[in-house]
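I hope you will forgive my troubling you with a question about protein structure. I am sending you one protein, given as its amino acid sequence and as whole-number tokens for its backbone shapes. Thank you for your consideration; the sequence and its tokens are set out here:
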Amino acid sequence: MTDNSRSNEQLLLLEVKGLTKFFPIRSKGLRRKVIGQARAVDDVSFNIFEGETLGLVGESGCGKTTTARCIVRALDPTSGEILFSHSDRETVDIAALSDREMFPLRRDVQMIFQDPYASLNPRMNILDIIGESLLVIGGMKDRTKRSKRVAELLKLVGLRPEYMQRFPHAFSGGQRQRIVIARALALKPRLVVADEPVSALDVSVQAQVLNLMLKLQQELNLTYLFVAHDLSVVKHFCDRVAVMYLGKIVELALTTSLFEGPMHPYTKALMGAVPEADPRRKAAMVPLIGEVPSPVSPPSGCHFHPRCPHVTELCKTTMPALEEIRLGQFVRCHRAAELAAG
């Protein structure tokens, strides 16, 4: 979507409330007792409207991919709600479903993986790779019908239908990612979770894949959760952006608002780290002290406060809260709120 405006009548497709995912840390030896927990995702909340693209950004290890995998139930959340508006307009909590109950819902929620080389089975041809979900989830047992559907999908992503008899090693990285996209679209999903779908590709190929995803979104009314670390890609691809740091969302806003006036010091630092193409312009670098804290024992209050240049005493004990602003949501840090008020 290129228009950031959103109708009040637009369907709320996905609502994540207090999503938490902790990974146990076990001791060495035979007994392997649990001695701690790594807080990969810690009380994350956001929503996605039908037809829009929400970007989820942050540095490596901040919890982006874990959040995405919890939403598609590749990982079981520790706690929280993942409310999804089903195709029959019934809202279901994905986090509370058993594997058997989740099975029919998988046609509505699909994922595009980061590495197109690792996400395709090298022992299967493209017909079987794309057709597997049609057979297992879609119940399409007739191989002729599956072949016809796979041919349609390959055309949709810009590949020749005769390629379906080839194996993954015969394709370039960009072509493999197109195959991954075709597989994700096979069951006509309503929500596509894209986990850094272009980060493993060359820059010129990235543009082709992103243009393809935008084209498919317009034609098929797709909704994207777009996980990325490249802010230049997010700026031109997403309607809203959520910024994550150490398992928490520190800012969430409309894309134009976020890039024109970021509110949180971490967001400013993240944007300042992006190199400028024009040598005559200097990026507004925000120096950060120290290292990212361990998710095993994160800081109290705002997780960013040990490195923040504007830290206050309140930051050390209290997390900032979401505020509704201009149809989007901001997470204002306490210092930013003080500056805005004064």
In short: The radius of gyration is 21 Å. The first strand starts at residue 12 and ends at 26. The CA atoms of residues 94 and 102 lie 7 Å apart. Residues 1-8, 324-330 have pLDDT under 50 and may be disordered.
